[in-house]
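Entry type: protein chain
Record version: 2
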Amino acid sequence: MADHPKDDATPRHAASGSQRTALVVSLICAAQFVLQLDFSIVNVALPSIQRELGMPAAELQWIVTGYALAFGSLLLAGGRLADLLGRRQVLAAGLALFGIASLACGLAQWPVMLIVARLVQGAAGAMASPAALSLLTTTNEEGSARNRALAMWQATTAAGATAGIVAGGLLTQYLGWRAVFLINPPVIAIMLALVPRLPAAKRSGSRGGVDVRGALLVTTGIAALIFGLSSGQQHGFTAPATLLALALAVLLSTGFVFAEKRSAAPMLPLSILAEPARRAAIAAMLLIGAILAGYVYFASLYLQKVLGFSPVVTGLALVPSTATVVLVSTLGTRRLLARFSIRGLLLAGLASMGAGQLWLTQITAGAGYPAAVLPGLVLTAAGVGLAMPTASIAITSGVRAGDQGLAGALFTTGQQTGAAVGLAVLATAAAATSGHSGSLVDGYRLSFLITTGLAVLAAIIVALQLSSKPQRVEAEDQHADPDGSPAAPTAAQLGEK
């Protein structure tokens, strides 16, 4: 009889845990949706912003570039801060700062005010995104629960990107460009009201504090790279500012590696990269990021400049690809992971992405959307739905709880850096080809051919590296939990399952 209360409490405890997990997944996916939305929602509003604020073209591009530069360069630092200071606290701070910056964007009266506010938005996103992803991975145990949560994360990422194009057009057309930014604060306020209900994970003291030198080196190095690539795309890769920025990126990145090797409390412990399987997954994410940025960018340009679609119709034309990513991620990938290896699913996803990009190389000036564009979009999207959640599992698997923020930042940084590098290279190649032949379509076809090659290269890397044996030091030293509990399976072990 004495045991009955305990038995009755067990279902209630399980139900409470299930509800808390559902809240974590829902809130974090909503935060990711908003962050991803702001990457694309502003693009449609740029002409209206330029007219009202009188911005020259050279300044206008910084509304987009400034956000991407701050976000991409600060992700690793944001991920480490989440591990050290508490993920819930850093998520709340990032969301609050994002809401304030969005308000400043919507109320901006001068170009410099808008650009600075966009930089702050990007920095806030770099705090919130890795904190959110690490909360997702630490709340859900490795296996089917985490696979399902990561699939939903990737689905909301894809949905946010496409919704931004459609919502940006609608808001700008009917409410004005300021509504693009002013829609964020009320949504952020609702999220902040729910944040205290998230689990408050213990702070990680294993690294002894913030590695300020490493954070500065990696942040300025990535910022220099993104700035150099953006400058190269705008002014040419032989321009002095471009060459200086790219040289500085190489110098700072080299200095970061040497500094981390000598640091007693490194921001990015190099042992986390010792496992070939994790390196392969990060390399795949760099290439996938380039493919994603390129195919959405050039498909949008083709639909508008060649087929004559309006911005809103272009966004609607991309909805099937978003729906495909959502369905494959949430309904397909998590079930397939229970039957097939990470290596197999990554290769299948990359093969589908490559096939989709190859299909798009056949576009012509007189082609129609249903036959020339839609199959390529859907094939690519199906590959994204398979590859992205699988890559996120490969990168975060086996990483101890105290480093999950950093692991999430590695995943997102790989995607964002790949997108910046890929888009700069693809845009330059497409512009050169179009200028030489006088045909926009020739340039777009070349970009899709290059992304096809990137998918093949990523598949080769995955095929070779994900069959490697895990490093013993990684399994024993890097992934052992502080309480002495057994280490989680490594990515290589999962890849060979």
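Comment: Confidence is low (pLDDT under 50) at residues 1-9, 468-497.
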